[in-house]
Design brief:
Layout: H1 2-12, E1 17-21, H2 27-36, E2 40-44, H3 48-55, H4 66-74, E3 78-81, E4 92-95, H5 110-122, E5 128-131, H6 139-149, E6 160-163, E7 182-186, H7 189-202, E8 206-209, H8 212-243, H9 247-254, H10 278-288, H11 294-320, E9 329-333, H12 348-358, E10 362-366, H13 392-396, E11 400-403, H14 412-418, E12 422-424, E13 439-441
Parallel strand pairs: 1-2, 1-4, 2-3, 4-5, 5-6, 7-8, 9-10, 9-11, 11-12, 12-13
Antiparallel strand pairs: 6-7
């Protein structure tokens, strides 16, 4: 087959142009992986600000070095653009757009479907299209394939279609995009083989599976597994708090077992683009098929409740000091969703901030990785704020310092020395020896 053979040859000799749609925390690391493997890449994003920064050699993601981007641009190995009509120039197109939930917590596939229409307007014979955005099983076949087929081109013959779930872990120095195995499922064996060949140049290992649906279901399973186990320890934490048992010590003891146990940790809520969202894609799909996923839905309820639990505990501790939340000065430490990253997506810190503001707290924040609060889709009424410097005077002026993200940069001995009270949701102060009477756990 001419289209397959020609594209396979281009992938083999690395003359295929890799096009990545969505230049965020998934797309930009993919650009790095493919360009490091010797491919030329094009990056597509509707946000002209991102494109302009990249063209100027500036990275807006902490773990992607600006010097690396600048060299790619100067060497003409990477070209970012907001012009979707240029998708025709790419031989392989990888979709890395958001898949959020709407207000009723149902899947919002508008970004995927909009991107599919953009690709369709430029689609030509001999292209490979791969969806990486995390979504529920059947999305590629039901929501992407018909849009592309409407062009008159046939999948598996004129162009090729596959799904390979992203597995990016921002801030994890042990696993970059290049070092994480890729699961790949194709519309047909030819599509699968082309996608496997493409990724095989850029990542450590490729795992082919029998269908796009298996690959889609794989990512949902991975993240639902984590969400359910985190919910379990969150539920145990609330119980153990009432019993006066330190859940962190319990987990440390349990993980000494060399088999049959994996440690998960409680927190103020779930963050990141995957774990708080993906299980709801599965529950939505189950309802469509007349099934109930009660276990997963219960886990979602527990995890969603955690910010309110933290604020309830805060109110109790302030009450012991003779103060209500209203009018109290609260410093929120960390708005990124996990330690040592600049990624605020779905961060529980924004829910905590909203709950505190609703109750009349005088709220400020610090995050060494997020100098100003970004605009968030699900938190449109969040006021503009800048990160405050953690001086002794600032800490002493607060009624409570609430640790929401355990960044390595935080000196917890210093914080506990100068703060009146520290509410620790991450067990970040476990090594603090002095001033422990100021520390509360939530």
């Amino acid at each position: 087959m001419a289209a397959f053979d020609q594209l396979a040859a281009k992938i083999d000799d690395k003359t295929a142009v890799i096009g990545v749609i969505g230049l965020g925390y998934v797309g930009l690391p993919l650009i790095r992986a493919f360009t490091s493997a010797g491919f030329r890449a094009m990056g597509f994003d509707v946000d002209q600000t991102k494109v302009d920064k990249l063209l100027a050699g500036q990275s807006y993601i902490k773990h992607i070095d600006s010097a690396f981007i600048s060299k790619l641009i100067s060497d003409k190995q990477f070209e970012p653009t907001a012009d979707m009509s240029r998708l025709r120039e790419a031989d392989c197109i990888i979709i890395c757009v958001p898949t959020p939930l709407n207000e009723s917590r149902d899947p919002d596939l508008s970004f995927i479907e909009g991107t599919a229409h953009s690709i369709a307007r430029a689609l030509r014979p001999g292209q490979l299209v791969v969806l990486e955005s995390t979504t529920h099983p059947t999305t590629t076949r039901v929501n992407v394939l018909p849009v592309l087929e409407a062009t008159g081109l046939k999948a598996g013959k004129d162009y090729f279609l596959a799904f390979s779930p992203e597995r990016e872990d921002p801030g994890n120095p042990n696993f970059s995009a290049e070092g994480i195995p890729k699961v790949v499922g194709g519309y047909d064996p030819l599509s699968r083989d082309l996608a496997c060949a493409m990724y095989g140049h850029a990542v450590v290992r490729v795992i082919p599976v029998s269908s796009m649906e298996v690959a889609e279901a794989c990512k949902i399973l991975e993240n639902t597994y984590r969400a359910v186990n985190i919910a379990m320890v969150n539920e145990l934490k609330m119980l153990y708090d009432k019993m006066g048992i330190d859940v962190w010590e319990v987990i440390d003891a349990a993980k000494t077992k060399p088999f049959g146990f994996q440690a998960f940790y409680p927190g103020p809520g779930l963050g990141g683009h995957c774990i708080p969202i993906d299980p709801f894609y599965l529950t939505w799909l189950a309802r469509k098929h007349g099934e109930a996923t009660r276990f997963i839905e219960l886990a979602g309820e527990i995890n969603t409740h955690m910010p309110k639990y933290v604020i309830t505990r805060l109110a109790e501790f302030l009450n012991d000091m003779g103060k209500p939340i209203k009018g109290s000065k609260i410093a929120l430490l960390g708005v990124a969703y996990k330690k040592d990253v600049d990624d605020p997506r779905e961060s529980p810190s924004f829910v905590l901030a909203e709950l505190l503001l609703e109750r009349g707290a005088e709220l400020t924040y610090n995050d060494p990785h997020v100098p100003s609060l970004p605009k968030m889709r699900h938190h449109p009424n969040m006021p503009a704020m800048d990160s405050q410097e953690l001086t002794p005077e600032y800490l002493a002026a607060q009624d409570c310092v609430l640790i929401a993200t355990d960044h390595t940069a935080y000196d917890h001995d210093f914080i506990c020395q100068h703060a009146r009270m520290v509410l620790d949701t991450r067990n970040a102060t476990k090594g603090v020896k002095q001033n422990r009477e100021k520390i509360r756990k939530a």
